[in-house]
Amino acid sequence: MNVISSFSGGGLGERGVFRGTIGFANPALAGFAWPLFEARGEAEGPRLCVSAGVHVNEVSSIEAAIRLQSLFDPRRMRGTVSIIPLINQPALYRYTEYACPIDGKNINFTFPGRAAGTFSEALCDAIQHDWCAGAACYVDLHGGDLRERVAKFVLFQRTGDAGHLLNARGLAMCFDADLVVGLAESELAKPGRPPTGFAREGRLAVMSEAGANGIIDEESVAFHVEGVLRIARQLGIIEQAPSLYRRQRTVCDDYLWVTAPADGQFYAEVEPAERVRRGQRLGVMRNFFGETVGEIVAPETGIVLWRMTHPTLKQGAPALAIAIEETPRREA
Ligand SMILES: [Zn+2]
Questions:
Q1: CA neighbours within 13 Å on the CB side: how many for 170?
Q2: Which residues form the Succinylglutamate desuccinylase/Aspartoacylase catalytic domain (predicted)?
């Protein structure tokens, strides 16, 4: 990580506040600069890294990454909070959904990355092993691309390591979420989201999701901001954070994508955060003459995580997702 420009006068890594742009050493990432805010307290303490804009239209989370910067005062904190408000720089001003325009990959499913790989793979490697080196936790903020509405939820990675699981779950519970989803251990077998990529190395990352349709909404911004502040408090970086929880924080075991059974217009009959039963009709697909051409049915009993809001969907395209509530564990 090298400083390209400093707007704050101070150097990166010094006590106080740094605002500027940075680049990464990997030649695959040459020519790009990332905005970086870093607040470092007078007292030593852990490092917390926060990012948004892996998906550039998820604007409530990007807004949260901007507002968070004014909430960390180096005189009233221990350790370091480092924030990159927009990760997917190649997509900036292109409003690209999901993918990185350089290699077409979804950065969100590319962790832990690969130094010798494509742009997205090199970027994930730089985030995880350079910017987040030594970080106690990485929080990646998401939610509400141009054609979707998401419940307020948070993702952590389940692993066989009881200590890691407890810590990951505890950090995820810092968000006042409708749903707290623990990704299945099977995710660890392939490149994945930040919680997965970090867990593969025994490290901690969580992802928060809130927002809709590329529009900033204050409730979603507050959800992201307050969750990060509670994590900073949990890590011992700050003393105070909002303490009130209003949502259920239902812990879930799994995350199922439900696809459109036919080409057509999607008419949803459920909304994010609603409970659904296995076999319940969740929506219908109609053709351009208004005739029903397929029904979307719940594959399991669960809670709707997100749904597409733009009606036009191709057969096989994700229409919505359902989280499955955690099975109560029996006492031994
Ligand atoms: Zn996203």
A1: 12
A2: 45-233
